[in-house]
Amino acid sequence: MATTKWAIDPTHSEIGFKVKHMMFTNVSGKFGAYDATIATEDDNFENASFEFSANIDSINTNNTDRDNHLKSGDFFDAENHPKLTFKASSFNKDGDDYELTGDLSIKDVTKSVKFPAEFSGLMKDPWGNTKAGLNISGKINRKDWGLNWNSALETGGVLVGEEVKLNIELQLIKL
Fold first, then answer.
1. What span, in angstroms and rounded, lies between the C-alpha atoms of 121 and 84?
2. 25 FRET partner, CA 20 to 30 A, in 57, 131, 161, 167?
3. Is residue 110's pLDDT more than 70?
4. Which stretches make up the Lipid/polyisoprenoid-binding YceI-like domain (predicted)?
């Protein structure tokens, strides 16, 4: 069977995350510059191959000082590690949904991760392009990748939560 290649439609996609701030509210952010290579053997995307990278310099939390701190050696160290990468080892149907498994590399640390994914199927847009929708969620502990910086609060607890919630909305376009 022929392999179909897909690209992320950046105008209809978002690579987002949330982290607790001061133990009680979430700060949201996203990556604005990223690249992906996605290939499928059939229309249900089972066993699709995914390779993804995001440019650390494109991180945006709507606060320049915070973004610069995230790019610094305290967190992502963008100067020495300009990208985070993900390479899937499997994309398998799990009931009505899917599970995406692969290696996530941040800085010089690579760890295997599993994320639930919803596949919305295929659709033609008004211009005749075939599109596919994927929502990938999940969470990671940032300390597993050496993103350890924190600050204690006078009231107890810490400034930045360890758990990072991922919310990735992808609209793919068939090449």
1. 27
2. 57
3. yes
4. 5-173
pTM for the predicted model, two decimal places: 0.87
Place of tokens 């701030």: 21
Residue 46: give its domain's CATH number.
2.40.128.110
Burial status of residue 52 (CB atoms within 10 A of its CB: 0-12, 13-18, 19 or more): buried
DSSP 3-state percent helix, strand, coil across the chain (nearest 5): 10, 60, 30
Q: pLDDT tens across 135-173, in order?
A: 999 999 888 888 777 777 677 766 777 888 899 999 999
Compute the Cα dihedral for 118, 31, 109, 38 and give only its sign. Answer: positive
The range of the structural domain enclosing residue 142 comes to 4-174
Tokens linked to 49? 């191959």
As given in the structure block, the two tokens for residue 88 are 């899937």
